Recover the amino acids of this structure.
């Protein structure tokens, strides 16, 4: 009996520069990742930056994802916000449609949706916000999967709406014992040591576990692993993670 090697997608946040403000290294990351979560202009990304990111992803054969967020350019989408459900659904729909339109002019298309920052974290525990996200995706294209942490309200709402759900984990973020992420304001929430990040990625891809901030192993069986494009040394992290995964016999390939 032949055992198939594990398969993992490697995603990163791209298209997050804005005007004169440059953030991340899209060109280098597109040579390493298999999926690109491209900003849709609400937390980051101006039209030219977004178009260039889409063109780069198409040229590199990288799947394009709509990274939707709260309308929060000043806070980079990482501030908690209260948005009525119908308004949030409309704003997410607007973002998906805008990115998909630009992607199609470059020969690509949006292949999945991933919330960003505060919206991502809020949707894990808030069923109303989670349902608003699912409603927007279903209204635009029910074939688009949602990329999110497994087991949360976002995953449940998407499944209830008939959407595919893709389990995600974070190689460069610390986990709490309940499987959620350590808030960014706490020490050690973001991991930048390439060796540590790569070892965590391999453990999640092959053994389906990750060590939490308390030192305990918790379950983590992702189909996609995220490296944040704005993390210090993101390109080195992505390169080290990809190499470690391949050396461990893991095939790196997009899910969409």
């Amino acid at each position: 009996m032949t055992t198939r090697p594990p398969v993992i997608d490697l995603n990163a946040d791209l298209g997050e520069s804005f005007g004169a403000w440059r953030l991340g290294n899209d060109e280098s990351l597109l040579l390493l990742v298999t999926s690109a979560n491209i900003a849709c202009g609400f937390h980051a990304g101006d039209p030219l930056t977004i178009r260039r990111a889409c063109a780069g992803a198409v040229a590199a054969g990288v799947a394009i994802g709509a990274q939707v967020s709260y309308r929060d350019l000043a806070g980079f989408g990482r501030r908690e916000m209260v948005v009525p459900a119908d308004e949030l659904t409309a704003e997410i729909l607007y973002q998906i449609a805008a990115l998909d339109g630009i992607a199609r002019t470059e020969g690509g298309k949006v292949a999945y949706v991933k919330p960003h920052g505060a919206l991502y974290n809020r949707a894990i525990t808030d069923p109303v916000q989670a349902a608003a996200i699912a409603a927007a995706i279903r209204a635009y294209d029910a074939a688009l999967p949602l990329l999110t942490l497994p087991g949360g309200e976002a995953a449940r709402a998407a499944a209830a709406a008939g959407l595919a759900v893709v389990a995600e984990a974070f190689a460069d973020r610390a986990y709490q014992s309940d499987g959620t992420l350590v808030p960014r304001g706490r020490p050690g929430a973001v991991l930048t040591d390439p060796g540590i990040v790569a070892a965590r990625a391999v453990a999640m891809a092959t053994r389906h576990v990750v060590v939490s901030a308390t030192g305990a192993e918790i379950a983590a069986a992702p189909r996609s692993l995220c490296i944040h494009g704005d993390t210090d040394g993101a390109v080195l992290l992505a390169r080290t993670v990809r190499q470690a995964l391949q050396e461990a016999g893991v095939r790196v390939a997009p899910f969409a």
